[in-house]
Design brief:
This protein has helices spanning 2-12, 16-28, 37-60, 62-81, 86-114, 118-149, 154-157, 159-173, 187-210, 215-235, 245-249, 251-281, 286-292, 294-311, 318-334, 344-371, 379-424, 430-466. The chain is built from 18 helices and no strands. Helices cover 78% and strands 0% of the residues.
Length: 488
């Protein structure tokens, strides 16, 4: 429960400020161009430093890294809540990402080494999977409540009591082996890997305002790919690699990483578009928007804890992952029929339930497969790779699908306004123009969500073809006696 609480704090912080962003922008006088850094500073630091955070957990010990991450995250949240300028808020969000990169991999590796009995491990991963999948929606709900009834700053301050409770609980309840003294930090690998990820994520985020053919965007994407290629080359030669290539050479583990990344691309896109659809098109308040995501959160929890957790030790992981991705793709496909007319009950609610159940079937077996059979000294970096796939997938999905939506909306609005002028011989009235813009916004959303459904189907294909492992065995059976951790 302590680990799940800390993970919830990290995951929901990626979305809790979304609904609060307009209020923060007004108070701190941010420009429209700069406001994205409230989100991007967090995701870039988090996604770019996760691998290094995982290796640090292996070096100094997972519990110690976990505790440092909690205190640092709380301090960064306090700084952000007290921000008196946009630069101070951007810095605080980046620091949250840095300490989140320490916290997330140590949390998952502690979960892996603490629960060795297969049934208990399945239950633990079910709860963890529900947190990982539902945290984004919970963040939207909490953001709406805190923004509407308190102040946007409480979207950051709320992390402080959560972190302190988790810190006290972890100090008493969690047990871990000392760090592995022979593990060394791969500094060149950290620079190449983190630099490549940051360049790609930043390039995708800049593609929204600049366009994909912009020189800066192309330079960032090409440069990021080149850095990642250099990273892979260096990992095969480094004496103490940041990411040992045998971790990703394993077919099942690579399939789990790819499935996670692809599924989250589509899921984060849905969160973005549904938030705007509910608030801008349907006129929902922040609280009502957050509450509208509750059915999806409930479906993710049911899928993770009541279906995946009960079936994983009886079935091969792909039997859950592939159908889960297909179910989520069907839910996304339903959203391609949205119009500017209210359609929550007829379209949004069924789609949320299908996507939620599908993601619940994906998250838990992906995490269990990715971390299964890993040597103790590699568990931190393996856990970090799972989180990297999730975080980078979410960042890329948001930027990629939002660019598609914006382009489709602009084309639709321009062509329909031109048709209106040609039909009447005069500029459209404000009412006609407003209706066209609203229809165009929804049209862009449906096009982008359609691509999200295709990406989710690709996740189903990857899970079904690459993940060939059978039902997991008791982890304690294959773990050397010296490596076992007492369960408490």
């Amino acid at each position: 429960m302590i680990i799940a609480l800390a993970q919830l704090m990290v995951v929901l912080d990626a979305t809790i400020v979304n609904i609060a962003l307009p209020s923060a922008q007004r108070e701190l006088h941010m420009s429209d161009a700069n406001r994205q850094w409230v989100i991007t500073a967090y995701t870039l630091a988090f996604g770019g430093l996760l691998l290094l955070g995982g290796r640090i957990a292996d070096l100094v010990g997972r519990k110690r890294t976990f505790l440092i991450g909690l205190i640092g995250f709380a301090a960064a949240s306090a700084l952000g809540g007290a921000a008196s300028s946009q630069g101070m808020l951007f810095l605080a969000r980046a620091l949250q990402g840095v300490f989140g990169a320490l916290l997330a991999p140590s949390a998952l590796s502690l979960l892996t080494t603490t629960f060795t009995d297969v049934k208990e491990r399945s239950k633990a991963f079910g709860i963890y999977g529900a947190i990982a999948g539902g945290g984004a929606a919970i963040g939207l709900i909490a953001g709406g409540l805190l923004t509407e009834y308190l102040d946007w700053r409480w979207c950051l301050y709320v992390n402080i009591p959560i972190a302190l409770i988790a810190f006290l609980g972890a100090t008493v309840l969690l047990h871990d082996r000392p760090g592995h003294g022979h593990v060394r930090l791969d500094v060149p690998g950290a620079v190449l890997g983190c630099g490549g990820l940051v360049a790609i994520v930043y390039g995708c985020s800049e593609a929204q305002p600049r366009g994909w053919d912009d020189a800066l965007v192309l330079g960032l994407l090409v440069g990021g790919l080149a850095l990642l290629a250099a990273f892979a080359w260096w990992q095969s030669r480094a004496p103490s690699p940041l990411l040992p290539l045998h971790i990703v050479r394993d077919r099942n583990r690579a399939g789990a990483f790819a499935t996670m990344g692809l599924a989250v691309i589509a899921m984060f896109g849905m969160f973005l578009f549904m938030t705007y659809y509910l608030q801008v098109v349907l006129g929902y308040s922040p609280v009502k928007t957050g509450m509208a995501f509750l059915p999806m959160t409930a479906a993710i929890i049911v899928g993770s804890t009541q279906i995946s957790a009960r079936l994983l030790h009886h079935l091969p992981p792909r039997v859950l992952m592939a159908p889960g991705a297909v179910l989520a793709a069907v839910g996304l496909f339903l959203l391609t029929f949205l119009t500017a007319e209210p359609a929550y009950v007829s379209h949004v609610l069924p789609a949320e339930l299908l996507v939620g159940l599908g993601m619940g079937l994906i998250f838990m077996p992906v995490m269990a497969t990715a971390t299964s059979g890993v040597a103790p000294h590699d568990s931190g970096v393996t856990s970090a790779t799972v989180n990297t796939a999730q975080q980078v997938g979410g960042s890329i999905g948001t930027a990629l699908l939002n660019t598609i939506a914006t382009s489709a909306s602009s084309t639709y609005i321009a062509s329909h306004l031109k048709e209106a002028v040609a039909r009447t011989g005069r500029p459209p009235t404000p009412a006609v123009k407003s209706a066209v813009i609203k229809d165009g916004v929804v049209h862009g959303f449906t096009i982008a969500i359609g691509w999200g459904a295709v990406i989710m189907l690709l996740a189903a294909v990857v899970a079904g073809t690459m993940v060939t492992a059978g039902a997991p065995k008791n982890a304690a059976e294959n773990e050397p006696e010296a490596d076992r951790v007492p369960t408490h």
